[in-house]
YjiH family protein (Shewanella psychropiezotolerans), 468 residues
Amino acid sequence: MNNEIGHASKNSESDPLEATAVKNYSTKRLLRFAFPSLVGVLLFLTPFIIDGKFTVIIAYLISSLNAYFKAYMLPISLMLTITSAVLSVIVPMTPLLEKSKNRFIQLFNPGAIWILIRVLGAISIIMIYLNIGPEWIWDRKTGGVMLLDVAPVLLILYFLSAIFLPLLTNYGLMEFIGTLLNKRFKRIFNLPGFAAVDALASWLSASSVGMILTIQQYRTGLYTKREAAMITTNFSVVSIAFAYVMLSFIKLEHLFIQWYISVVITGIICAIIVPKLPPLKKIPNDVFTNAPVTPRDEINIDGNPFKFALRKGIERADCAPSIWTQLKDGIHTASDVAITVFPTLMLIGVGGLALIEYTNVIQFLSIPLIPLLNLLQLPEASLAATAILSGVIEILMPSILGAHIESELTRFVVAGVAINEIIFLSEVAIILIRANIGLNLLNLLAIWCLRLLIALPILTLLGNIFVP
């Protein structure tokens, strides 16, 4: 995608007429770009007053569907997890199914490790539902939280995101905005201008999506190792929809707009400062050894920047698959996430909550944070410190634990810090370590700490402004 941007800029230099070619685009092509992008912006990015509160439509949909289907979500969660575990055992043992090219059947042929995770996830859910086995698994404060409180909301989130997020990512909106931000992005973040597109992919879709895209671009030679590490650890935040779910757990939905503005401001400041410090600063600025010859040309805008950006958006929209294909892709993606990530999240979530409820490990490790939180005059510093530190295990943990904090200001800060920490062991850390972009576990923990130390005072300041 970025290669095309580089090539297009060369072509526009060689052909003066191409810079104004946007004038000749048909109404159909313009609408194919503009209409889905506008709907995506209205769904995900435009604040509305609904029931007397500022919110965005996707957040309202998640809340409404969760309320409507709440009675059915527990049996659905049980059925989904148990059925996927059983099928994941059957499919690899059945030659006809194991060799099938149907991508939905192949969802149940993930490899030995993931089969084990799915089976263990299903067993843990059965134990929680029936209250059997060790108490630390099925306790209402551990497994009960994950099965009864987290599972229903996440399943709805997975399917809504998979169906509607392509409106932001598949019809040229990212290319349009990324091209317009090209020079500013390079000047502010010291990254190639075309990295703005990857950053938006991370910010508007999902952290893992943005990371995988950036890693792929690094392996084609588009980024150096340091650039790839900078992008993945500073722009790969969770999606807006997931951010709303996190805020709903901590019971601050009525402050979603103010809170998300604070998260964005904090994220931008972190992305400016953290890459200038070790360990990111010390990562070699090397290109991937086996990368194919890929031009690293900047976006060279010839003529009107808006017209050039519009052309890039329209060209991306031209490549978008049909609505039916996207619907099938969305259902496939949501199913993949639900049957793969959900059991993993259950296992890590139950283990993490049990560690907090049945041991003093997290509380002990969080003690150094308490003086800093007291210095910032955040109420309930001890509870907040434990909630914040738990984010290194799983990104939902701070919101789950933070729900017990009475102070709205402290909850506002805890949820915002959780989003901006970016790195958590249950998913992101594994992806980045396996990517071989100069990041090991110690590097990631150091970056996590840096982002925490920068985010805390900024979010506390903004919280004091926005929280009544």
Q: What stands out?
A: The CA atoms of residues 208 and 428 lie 7 Å apart.
